Amino acid sequence: MTELLIKGANLVTGGDDHENALPAGGQDILIKDGRYADPADASAEATVIDADGLTALPGLIDLHTHLREPGREDAETVESGTRAAARGGFAAVLAMANTNPVTDTAEAAAHIRTLGEKAGFAQVFPIGAVSKGLAGEELAELGLMARIGVRMFSDDGNCVSDSRLMRRALEYVRAFDGVIAQHSQDPRLAGRDACCHEGEISGRLGLAGWPSAAEATVIARDAELAKLTNSRLHVCHVSTAESVDVLAWAKKRGIKITAEVTPHHLLLTTAEVQGYDPTYKVNPPLRPDEDVAALRAALADGTIDAVATDHAPHARHDKEHAFADAAFGMLGLETALGVVIETMLNTGALDWDTLVQRTSIAPGRIAGLGSDLGMRPAYGQTAQLTVIDPQRRNPVDAAESFSLSRNNPWHGRELPDPVMITIADGRISYQRQ
Amino acid sequence: MRHLLSAADLSLTDVGSILDLAEEMADVQHRSIKKLPALRGRTVVNLFFEDSTRTRSSFEIAGKWLSADVINISAKGSSVSKGESLRDTVLTVAAMGVDALVIRHAASGAPQQVTGWIDAQVINAGDGMHEHPTQALLDSFTLRKHFGADSGVDAFAGRRIAIVGDITHSRVARSNVILLKKLGATPILVAPPTLLPSGVDSWGCEVSHDLDQVITGVDAVMMLRVQRERMSGGYFPTPREYTVGYGLTRDRVAALKPGTAICHPGPMNRGLEISADAADAANSLILDQVAAGVAVRMSVLYHLLGGEGES
Asked: Does residue A153 contact residue A127 with C-beta atoms inside 8 Å?
């Protein structure tokens, strides 16, 4: 029997009350054999952690992680990626399907889940591809993947641009309450060369850009398809003010639509691109200040439901090209909570309960995890907990990352660095030394 | 000035100095022995990731006439398709002991990125849709002579210069806009809306979609080459329609004020953006531009590499 007694932490629950829920506020938290138990029952043998002055949150869940295994183990493995996730306070991650081979079969999905279990740092829930090979032509075996517990499907990296295929996918997953997570971006609108936001900066730098409309138009189309099929649509990494307007319109009409925003779209702007540093090349691209403001407001008022990292590790040599030729993506798992605290909490846009909603409760609900994840902690449940020091700040040092990659857009920037302990699936998976 | 990446890197004094020295360098072309010792012992590498006969030859001749050791490396195709990163390619070349790298790349910003990896001086010989600063310098050199070189950089004060065609994809246009404004001229961009970049309103230029209205009141017309892929890319309906709307046709040449300069960075699509009448007109400066290229690049190399090898 193992016992862990976290003494004096201020528990933030996200407000979702239910039977056996741990009370919010300052208290001791006992985890016995991986489950929450009454602290009054702690034995003298319990390992005690002094958490005076610290805050405890339900374990964070990332809806959007690229673990690169199988296929690009030089950039990230399930083990290194989930180690980074644990350091960032995540108890669980949803692993995107654009691996090599693509996660478009039940066997491939099961393999990734097993790798996650072996690593043991964060629970790994595979996302299945919508189409075979992400080619956007034929549906992948959505039902067989659902049989082993996959509930979220995405061709992320590619947009499911064929509206007929998108309709079929939405219809099909309704049978098992699945959700289609769309990378909303009309691939024809900007062409293959697009590598940043289309605007004054792209025009001056001579870079081909995506117009904001390339995102918003696809969200609008998909919202109509979700309405037609009465299915659940999730919009990945929303990046523009126009998209926020479309989301608000769709939600107002009762369409089953949810959305996520990345930490980097909450803080960085297209101005970062001016030095042609491929670290800041990301898809969807960084946008102007007014979009960042709209995204923050939408996350605060719930138009955007969740924060998701879009953690996209790349080997150095895949970024050391000319900007237009370099790979898209940036790291995000280890810094996500710090960026959200900086942009949303420290600015007064979110309170702690709502922050928990956006980083744990909503992601769990959207992904359909149906487990102890993404819920207010309750006695008897498996512990999924993130203990943080909200006052702690540090300059980010890319060299210290647990990820195998170094494409870290925050290097050198001082940010909240709050995570002290992560407990995933009942076990400590990260503890700051 | 450590590198020449953008026309924006140049102060007005730099521009004047480069153009003045180019006047002297131009005389070398007329000597029987075309050689100055200025860059003896210096190594200049033309690292071209994209095809270019004109610019590469121009830099090569410029370097050789200054007695530099000039090496041409063609790295055609993106480094991505060859499997090697840009950084590795450039580090390999720089490790051979290079004083200056003249870089042409199909991707915007590549020369700027390179400066972060190596110690050698870098000259941008055209990067994607971004800039081509030595082209703008040679255009200014040519126009200054045409307007009256005696007035120095003041030759551009109050001049109105139309830049016509595919502004969006033109590195020549971007560098010229920066440089001509610096010199006191007013660039006027003329193109269909499909060939004007986002944010062009912030460039501080006049913008027009009506070439006929513009050309009667300008001192120079710079025609831009229409790249073949634009013709099928939906930027305009047909080549015929483009020529009718934005080509420098015989009628439009006739409508120009006397003495209006006609420029084109080449290679030309005769009959599309420029008629034979315009290209071969008495006031066409197109071959002068080519000749000026060598002199201006000699001047740029001299300014950057300092001429320590001069005896």
From this structure: yes
Report residue A111 as tokens. Answer: 């393999």
pLDDT band at A15 (very low <50, low <70, confident <90, very high): confident
pLDDT, position B231: 76
Cβ–Cβ below 8 Å for B109 and A203: no
Same fold, B3-132+292-306 and B135-289: yes
Q: Answer whether A192 touches B (CB < 8 Å).
A: no
CATH 2.30.40.10, chain A: domain bounds: 3-55+381-431
CATH superfamily ID and name for B3-132+292-306:
Aspartate/ornithine carbamoyltransferase (3.40.50.1370)
Which residues, listed in sequence order, are joined to residue A56 by a DSSP beta bridge? A11, A387
Question: Distance (Å, rounded) from C-alpha A403 to C-alpha A432?
Answer: 16
Three-state SS at A182 = strand
User: Residues of chain B whose pLDDT is less than 50?
Assistant: 308-311
CA-CA-CA-CA torsion sign (A141, A147, A151, A152): negative
CATH class of A3-55+381-431: mainly beta
Q: Where are the beta strands (DSSP E) in A272-417?
A: 306-307, 385-388, 393-395, 414-416
**Tens digits of residue pLDDT in A401-426:** 999 999 999 999 999 999 999 999 99
Interface pTM, i.e. ipTM = 0.90
pLDDT at B195: 96
A324-343 residues touching B, CB cutoff 8 A: 324-325
| DSSP code for B154 | G
Q: DSSP alpha helices (H): ranges in A131-199?
A: 142-147, 163-173, 187-190
Asked if B202 reaches chain A (Cβ–Cβ under 8 Å), the answer is yes
A59-367: CATH topology: TIM Barrel (3.20.20)
Amino acid at B240: R
Task: Establish, for the pair of chains A and B, how many residue pairs have beta carbons separated by less than 8 Å.
Answer: 89
Give how far A224 is from chain B: nearest CA, Å: 29
In CATH, B135-289 is 3.40.50.261: no
Cβ within 8 Å, pair B203-A321: no
- Give me the residue spans of the domains in chain B: 3-132+292-306, 135-289
3-state secondary structure labels for all residues of B65-116: HCCCEEEEEECCCCHHHHCCCHHHHHHHHHCCCCCEEEEEECCCCHHHHHCC
Q: pLDDT by residue (tens digit) across B109-149? A: 999 999 999 999 999 999 999 999 999 999 999 999 999 86
pTM score over 0.90:
yes
pLDDT at B152: 57
> Whole-angstrom Cα distance, residue B83 to residue B80?
5
Q: What are the residues facing B124 on neighbouring strands?
A: B103
What residues of A form the annotated binding site for Zn(2+)?
A: 64, 66, 156, 183, 237, 310
CB of A209 less than 8 A from some CB of B? yes
Instruction: Give the pair of three-digit tokens for residue A73.
Output: 């183990």
Cβ separation A320–B86 shorter than 8 A: yes
How far, in Å, CA of A245 to CA of B219, rounded?
Answer: 48
Cα B122 to Cα A297, B4, B116, B129, B304: the distances in Å are 44, 6, 10, 18, 9
Q: How many CA atoms lie within 13 A of B157 on its CB side?
A: 7
Residues of each domain in chain A carrying CATH 3.20.20.140: 59-367
Task: Quote the minimal CA–CA distance from B80 to chain A in Å.
Answer: 7
Enzyme catalytic residues of A: 310
Bridge partners (DSSP) listed for residue A94: A125
R_g over Cα of chain B: 19
Classify residue A143 as exposed, middle or buried by CB count within 10 Å of its CB (0-12, 13-18, 19+).
middle
- C-alpha radius of gyration, chain A, whole number: 21
- Which pair of tokens denotes residue B25? 């360098």
Buried/exposed code over B275-303 (b: 16+ C-beta within 10 A; e: otherwise): bebbbebebbbbebbbbbbbbbbbbbbbb
